[in-house]
Write a structure and sequence with these properties.
- The chain has 293 residues and is an alpha+beta fold.
- The protein has a single domain, classed as Creatinase/methionine aminopeptidase superfamily (Creatine Amidinohydrolase, Alpha-Beta Complex).
- It contains six helices and 14 strands.
- The strands form four sheets. Strands 7-6-8-13-14 form a five-stranded antiparallel sheet. The chain has a three-stranded antiparallel sheet with strand order 1-3-4.
- Helix 1 runs antiparallel to helix 2 and helix 3 packs antiparallel against helix 4.
- The radius of gyration is 18 Å and the shape is globular.
- 47% of the residues are buried.
Length: 293
């Protein structure tokens, strides 16, 4: 029995919107650009297209692998030569798409080998996908092409299965061999997400960033907090999305109901490139949902 989402068109629509937001973010990542304004631009483009951000725009730079998004009062700007990961998510009624690309700010080619390794890694992983495949084979394909460029995949960051309103649904899609032997199922949605580095090939936790999510429904005793839970469900969000002082105060009071995400930093101080597509597993291959025509 296959498990194609009954609302498959919502998944395709969310994926197209996420991919367009990804490309918008990549184009606008220029020297001097405000990180806060870039994140807002990406997220507003998703809303304007009729979807909602599935998580805050991740704009991790250089040795940061993932989970950086600007704070409410952030004044950071992009510098020429920054290696920027533009990691974007959109959802339509809980149908989630997750996609990423890496740009060198200013258009230089100092990190072209890293960028190509990540991009070739995601394409190698996609070529392996079909129902019944051992996810270890995806990891083997990703690892092989990244090593061929003299670089390392980050072994403790993985792709993931996606379900309605659940970004990381429990099945890991590894970027190296030997991590998992689960098998893909026809009709499931997964994200393939290689990270390539010239460092140690693993990450450590940096400072806690500006991304959080609800662990559970906070219940009716905090009506403002519960309204926020109904808005975000268990998807990650940012305090930048609070629309009133009451929202901000409720989030501070309700910290016990929230999980905060640390920024992931390359353990050896290496620079990191990322590429990611959301794909639908089919009987004999993959429909790449976040690839634009």
């Amino acid at each position: 029995m296959t498990r194609y989402p009954p609302d498959l068109e919502n998944w395709r629509r969310a994926a197209r919107i996420a991919a367009e937001a990804r490309e918008l973010g990549a184009r606008r990542a220029v020297p001097g650009a405000s990180m806060r304004e870039l994140a807002d631009l990406i997220e507003e483009s998703i809303r304007a297209a009729g979807a909602q951000p599935a998580f805050p725009a991740n704009l991790s730079r250089n040795v940061e692998a993932a989970h950086f998004t600007p704070a409410v009062g952030d004044t950071l700007t992009l510098a020429e030569g920054d290696l920027l990961k533009v990691d974007v998510g959109a959802h339509v009624d809980g149908a989630v798409a997750d996609t990423a690309t890496t740009v060198e700010v200013g258009g230089g080619r100092r990190f072209e080998n890293l960028r190509l390794a990540a991009r070739e890694g995601v394409e190698a992983g996609i070529r392996v996908v079909q129902a019944g495949v051992d996810v270890n084979e995806i990891g083997r394909a990703v690892e092989s092409v990244i090593h061929a460029r003299g670089l390392k995949p980050i072994r403790d960051l993985c792709g993931h299965s996606i379900e309605r309103y659940v970004l990381h649904a429990g099945k890991s899609i590894p970027n190296v061999t030997g991590m998992s032997h689960e098998r893909l199922e026809e009709g499931e949605v997964i994200a393939i997400e290689p990270f390539a580095t010239n460092g140690a090939g693993s990450i450590e936790n940096g400072e806690f960033g500006n991304i959080q999510r609800f662990r559970r429904d906070p219940g009716p005793t905090e009506p403002v907090l519960q309204a926020l839970y109904r808005r975000f469900q268990t998807l990650p969000f940012s305090a930048r999305w609070a629309t009133s002082d009451a929202d901000t105060a409720a989030l501070k009071r309700g910290r016990r109901h929230l999980q905060s995400y640390p920024v992931f930093v390359e353990r050896g101080g290496g620079f990191v490139a990322q590429a990611e597509h959301t794909v639908l597993v089919t009987a004999d291959g993959a429909e790449v949902l976040t690839r634009l025509p």
